[in-house]
Amino acid sequence: MKVMTTGALLLTLTALGCGPGHMDREPDHGSTIPIGSGAIADPFLAARQAFENPGGMWTPEQVADQGATLRELGLAMAPSVFRDPTAHPLGAVVFLGGCSASFVSPDGLIITNHHCATGALQYNSKAGANLMQDGFLAATRKDEKSNGPAARVYVTRSFVDVTARVREGIEQVADDRKRYELIQQRSKELVAGCEQGRPELRCNVVSYYGGEQYILIEQLEIRDVRLVYAPAEAIGSYGGETDNWRWPRHSGDFAFFRAYVGPDLKPADYDEKNVPYRPRHHLAIATEPLKPHDLVFVVGYPARTTRLRTAQEVAEAVDWSYPRRLELCQDYMALLDRLGKQDEQLAIKGRRLRKGLSNAAINTKGMLDGLVRGGLKDQKAALEKQLVAWAAAQADHPGVDQAIGNLAKHYAKYRGQRDADAATQEAVWMSTLLGAADIIVHMAEQRVLPDAKRHPDFQRRNHKRIEQQQQYVQRRYARELDQAKLALALERAARLPAAKQPALLELVVGQSKPTKAAIDKAVKALYEQTKLEDVDERIRLFREATSGDLQKSADPFIQLALKLRPVLQAVEDRADGYKGATILDRPKYITALRAKRGGVLAPDANATLRITYGTVRGYRPQPDAPLHAPFTTLSEMVSKHTGQVPFNAPKNLLEAAKSGPFEPYVHAGIREVPVDFLTDLDITGGNSGSPTLDAQGKLVGLAFDGNYESIASDWLFMPDVTRSIHVDIRYALWIMDRVDGADHLLAEMGIEPKLP
Questions:
Q1: 577-605, pLDDT tens digit by residue?
Q2: Is residue 623 reached through a cis peptide bond, with omega within 30 degrees of 0 on the bond before it?
Q3: Catalytic site residue 520?
Q4: Has 115 been annotated as catalytic?
Q5: Secondary structure (H, E, C), 202-257
Q6: CA-based nearest residue to 4, from 94, 93, 99, 120
Q7: How does pLDDT run across 395-423, given as a tens digit for each residue?
Q8: Which of 42, 176, 224, 253 is catalytic?
Q9: Measured between alpha carbons, how far is 235 from 16 in angstroms, rounded to an integer?
Q10: Degrees (nearest 5) of the Cα angle 91, 92, 94?
Q11: Cα(751)–Cα(161) distance, rounded to whole angstroms?
């Protein structure tokens, strides 16, 4: 399950430290299109069967440039439609801040994954009304529930290349951190110019190819997002952790939101007077049945890949960051499980984090298995040696070996305190109150500066977002939960060798030995004496407090944050210095890599709009293993039902599966309602909820997961085994029609309900 927290969470966990061959061909059932009483052969079938996906999360322009390949695979649109991200179909695809999604009606109805709705379901849950478990369906638009003040929908409006402005003269800046600060200052100026006089927009300058290119991206920011429909967890997450990252799969991983704007049709905060947003474009539901080998696309906002990193960086991930991340996930999962068993309310409040950690743990284990047991670490090292040898023979690519060596030196220089840095950041991230106290202290420091000179996070454009985030997290705050997480973070820090322990330990515990008892006692005192549990007090201090005010504060979290701020600033300075150093050398490495590959190279994922394309097909997890078929079915899902979590299909689904009817949602080739399907597409975290489109640009499913064997493809694409998993739109429609009675939503999408 490539959940939001595999996009957002894995990025946070990263900050905390934490050979191609042709595919076997499946049987071609369903490979002809019935017309009248006969059938005609698919003229593109042979090309699609022979196609071996090279991988690539491509920018829109790069896909448009691959028109010849797309035509061979049966594209039924002009390739030029992919060049304009504001035109159909790309203009219908949106970003939720962690997941991807798409508009499916002219009234702002949005479809995404069920697991992308976990935050909205949690926000609206309480003891006795657990929407995360039971699901939700708004009978009317008045019944649609707010996803919370921090919820967002981003509609991309434009891309502008600003590389020349951002990179001008950076080679002449000798100091690494000052070089990064110069880039940051230029980015702030570009953003300010983009947003000036247009409060409805959110602009960002984003780095591609390790700083070789910079793009100014303009997005409409919709701030009123509401929960419309999510099936029960026993449908949306059927199979749970047992089936996560596995095939065959039978999850109905879909949900619906709606975007709202003010009566003036401009983005506004939640208000009952707001009206549905009218998007310029929305996706139509496919009418042609999806079959094996069909051409498909996924359009979305993948969060992060690392294919353009060096062999040394692979080794760092294998030796340090991935083992640390795996241990972190396991430790906090055990804590959340223990607390959840004691109290239903704690279980609800910790549920979203628990699911994200579980997903990240499986992902991390898969990375390690692929890089070590699968040999990708050695493969990356061998490919790098080949690149260096190739570049040495080219007159126009000098110094590639030196650039690679410099990147290793930069890491050694700036990441030498990685254990203490990661432990400090972990504690701040895990504790709502410590994190809030640091924001308050940091804001007080920044307040005295002109807005243009402030750290980007603390400029006025972000103040409302910070306040809304505090309001949002309050819904899942519980003292017992927050206190336990901070204590665990400190216990984990205390396990480090004395020389690597963070200063935070002594700041909390004092000079005494940081035993569990000493940590628990000190942390308990913090929570018993603080006023920061009051969200209004946190927001007041954020808005008003000066550094002088905070120095006089008796609040223990504020005093701790004041002492910790120089430590965190040093962590941030080291991170900025590392970025500033690599900005000169990484582009040299990537430029040579692109040239060696013939001039075409997809950038690593960076949470910007991307397109990946390929075909519907199964795979063999091992060369001698049986071939996995590309579709799973309703009857298979029913056969897995045990009545126990996670294979506890709802009673009304089982009854509908037994009695029917099933038309028009049946797959002709397998004579059943399809549930999920496989493709050879290249996706990663952040692609969750991405629409899967057919050759006509119509919606055939939603990407929601990948197979375990492909997890390490974030480092090196593996065409033989890399598969993405999608919920079939026919299953979603069948659930809505025959199980949950969401007829009004079907009608809104242009689908006629078939159940009387």
A1: 999 999 999 999 999 999 999 999 999 99
A2: no
A3: no
A4: yes
A5: EEEEEEEHHHCEEEEEEEEEECEEEEEEECCHHHHCCCHHHHCCCCCCCCCCCEEE
A6: 99
A7: 889 999 999 999 999 999 999 999 999 99
A8: 253
A9: 33
A10: 95
A11: 41
- Token code pair at residue 707: 């197979």
Average pLDDT over the chain, rounded to an integer = 93
Smallest CA-to-CA distance from 416 within 304, 294, 499 is with 499
Of 54, 87, 50, the closest CA to residue 72 belongs to 50
Residue with tokens 């905390």: 16
Residue 423: partners with Cβ closer than 8 Å, 6 or more residues away: 489, 492, 493, 496, 501, 502, 504
Phi then psi for residue 430, to 5 deg, are -75, -30
Instruction: Give pLDDT, residue 681.
Output: 98
User: Which among 398, 472, 394, 393 has a CA at the least distance from the CA of 435?
Assistant: 472
Both tokens of 474, joined, read: 């309050």
Please report which helix (H) or strand (E) contains residue 388, including its range.
helix 376-392
Per DSSP, the three-state class of 712 is: helix
Are 236 and 253 in contact by the 8 Å Cβ rule? The answer is: yes
Which tokens in the block code for residue 297?
Answer: 């696309």
Helix or strand run (H / E) with residue 276: strand 275-276
When pLDDT is averaged across residues 97-116 and rounded to a whole number, the result is 98
Closest by CA position to 148, among listed 117, 130, 123: 123
- 14: tokens are 């990263």
The number of residues in the chain equals 756
> Is residue 44 helix, strand or coil?
coil
My answer on whether omega of the bond before 661 falls inside 30° of 0, hence cis, is yes
Q: DSSP 3-state assignment of 283?
A: coil
Structure tokens at 405: 């060596």
Catalytic residue flag (residue 690): no
Q: In one letter, which amino acid is 194?
A: C
End-to-end CA distance of the chain: 35
What span, in angstroms and rounded, lies between the C-alpha atoms of 200 and 219? 9
Binned at pLDDT 50, 70 and 90, residue 41 comes out as low
**CA-wise closest residue to 367 among 13, 617, 4:** 13
Distances (CA, A) of 197 to 200, 217, 220, 358, 679: 9, 17, 13, 43, 44
Portion of the chain with pLDDT greater than 70, in percent: 94
Write down the catalytic residue from 115, 250, 293, 442: 115
How many CA atoms does the CB half-sphere of 674 hold within 13 Å? 23
- Helical packing angle, 556-596 and 176-195, nearest 10°: 90
Q: CA-CA distances (angstroms) from residue 600 to 22, 63, 194, 305? A: 21, 11, 30, 17
Q: 5: pLDDT confidence band, cut at 50, 70 and 90?
A: very low
Which candidate in 207, 251, 358, 688 is catalytic?
Answer: 688
Tokens of 697: 């640009």
pLDDT at 34 (0 to 100): 27
Exposure of 386 by Cβ count < 10 A (0-12 exposed, 13-18 middle, 19+ buried)?
Answer: exposed
pLDDT digits (tens, 9 = 90+) for 370-394: 999 999 999 999 999 999 999 999 9
Q: What is the DSSP string of 489-520?
A: HHHHHHTS-GGG--HHHHHHHTTS---HHHHH
686: left (phi over 0), alpha (psi -120 to 50) or beta: left
The C-alpha R_g of the chain, in whole angstroms, comes to 26
248-296 per-position pLDDT tens digit: 999 999 999 999 999 999 999 999 999 999 999 999 999 999 999 999 9
CA-CA distances (angstroms) from residue 747 to 138, 142, 254? 14, 17, 17
Instruction: Name, in order, each residue with C-beta under 8 angstroms of 331's C-beta and a sequence gap of 6 or more.
Output: 488, 492
pLDDT at 353 over 50: yes
d(CA 473, CA 432): 8
Phi first, then psi: give them for residue 443, nearest 5 degrees.
-65, -40
